[in-house]
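Internal QA ticket QA-208
Title: Verify multi-chain structure generation after dependency bump
Assignee: T.L.

Test input:
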Amino acid sequence: MTARRTAFFISDRTGITAEMLGQSLLTQFDPIEFQRITIPFVDSVEDAEAAVEQVNAAVIEDGARPIVFSTLVDDDVRKVIGKMNALVLDLFEMFIIPLEAELGLHSSHTVGKSHSTANFSSYNQRIEAINYTLTHDDGATNRNLEDADIILVGVSRSGKTPTCLYMALQFGIKAANYPLIPEDLQQMKLPPVLLQHRSKLYGLSITPERLQQIRSERRPDSKYAALANCKFEVQAAEAMMHQASIPFLDSTTKSIEEIATTILHTAHLARRIY
Amino acid sequence: MTARRTAFFISDRTGITAEMLGQSLLTQFDPIEFQRITIPFVDSVEDAEAAVEQVNAAVIEDGARPIVFSTLVDDDVRKVIGKMNALVLDLFEMFIIPLEAELGLHSSHTVGKSHSTANFSSYNQRIEAINYTLTHDDGATNRNLEDADIILVGVSRSGKTPTCLYMALQFGIKAANYPLIPEDLQQMKLPPVLLQHRSKLYGLSITPERLQQIRSERRPDSKYAALANCKFEVQAAEAMMHQASIPFLDSTTKSIEEIATTILHTAHLARRIY
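Actual output:
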């Protein structure tokens, strides 16, 4: 066992799929520190040979063979990569064979069919969702709120903006968000414009301690970031959401991906794009 | 062979990895229309049994067994899912065994280690990149441009905003963007504020035909969307970028993922987050 290894993500397209799966597998081997290198757009034998050289250099440097996660559709390219001095795990190869058998069909072996722009309507849905979400960030406008798929509410810095952007970009969901400001919280009333769209509301909450930590990064030693104020805001926001029967989740220990997926799932929204 | 099949993405966490890999594999089997269903957060035997029921219902409806892409770390949960009447491809199982052998180490079998928020500094980098990118969208401000990792330039609707948001969210990259407006294009001069940061500039171009199509969605029958105007803007923008030695790429047939990855790769930027 070596304490240091290099992990390569090699793909004929972006490498994003290989990175995502590889990364989640590597986190299962905590004691090892992986240096991660992505080599995208390897779609010719020449590119593959250049990648082999890079991998061989890592063998020498680490004194151990690298781990390679690859998604390579072309058989010739995959053959070159497969012969490297490395543990090569090709996602395409490991899955395409059982799929072909199950479906009784040869796969098309076409590079770059995912993330396709070929479908203009799905491209448009994505762009429209992004534009909608940008326009409706942080309560910027009440116009066309009826077009929202979801409206997130929560105190400042509870994670609304990143979650909305993620939902728009990755799911094609039109996600507005509306900050609960001190005035709302003191009156213990949701703004009337939001109550008109109650069925689309979804709350984000957070622990006061975490909120203090996040707000202190931006405005250290402010009343805004003070623990007492964070406690008041969080408690008042949660009480309001309870009162109005708005579902909400605690974002404290969740990543943006987890928050977005949980909302999609519990609010019964469907992804518009894949 | 059936013309219709259901594909399930079942995960103990978000299901995003299973969706991404599954989706890119399914696009290789074009003739079949897949209905896609994601079941996230399956982290108990009870959840697994509920998923089995859902899958069994699809068997009856389709008259063919579904394809299941799963990422399940817990052995008991995986056992329940593995026994379903479906082609179950568990990403975790297929890769973890060769990895354990290669690394001479047992994996931690801990659910939900990817997309972690445990690392506060990496969470902060992501949020900071998103805030920076939102503040520096569409030339909104020239302040702190020196903090940008990259500054995208291009005509209106060439894909700058979605690309910048993607880079911020997924890579933790601070990405500003600056529209080339008709005044810039007529004078054939990049704004002086941009020339100060020439090494960070990266251009997006697009074919005039595609630009016309995209602009017409927003403002049909406008001068803005007219083919002649699109031609002028694109040609002038490309000439300016050539003159100033700014690298640029054609976004026409590329997805947001492909544009973002290509820029990351050719501008030699490193992902800040995984």
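Spot checks passed. Chain B touches chain A through 79 residues (CB under 8 Å).
Status: verified.
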